[in-house]
Amino acid sequence: WEPWQHDYRFGVILVMPPPHVASPIDALRQAYGPKSHAICSAHISVSDPLRRELSDDARKEIQELLRGVEPFEVHYDRPTASARRPGVAYPVSPQERFDELKGIIHQASVFEGVAYGRREIPAHMTIAEFLTIEDSLRICADLIDTAPRGSFWCDRLEHVVPDATFRFRRRGTFLLGTSR
What we know:
By secondary structure, this protein is α+β, with helices and mostly antiparallel strands. Helices cover about 30% and strands about 25% of the residues. β4 (about 80) and β5 form a beta hairpin.
């Protein structure tokens, strides 16, 4: 593993779109960002990396925190890229719901301590990373009119943990609100 990857050894909690949404986005990830695609399929990061193993008690704590979070519709539209930071991603909305979800999930004891440096990055669904700004802008221009757009119902979060080759695998599901 690379040094930055060790932070993720206990996993992370994500929104993973349903297969009919993830499949065309994963095809873009495979074509334009094969390294990030190999690490994890299409997703929206919700949590910092867990600071310790997710015990049964911690799992129950998170599920209890999420009981009051109602499921919601996630929208994704045109991919974007920045002239300041490399990468191509779908902005997702409603951003306020993701901010609320991040605030709630980080109340769990497995996140105690200093907030991870990436916590304040707005929620998004990455297409490509680990590339130059120039390549990001070119890829975004190529995709702006052809990349799939749409929405999906978010009624669950997934706990994923990397394996020995740093490929994230699902370990558990947390249902939101009344979706149980």
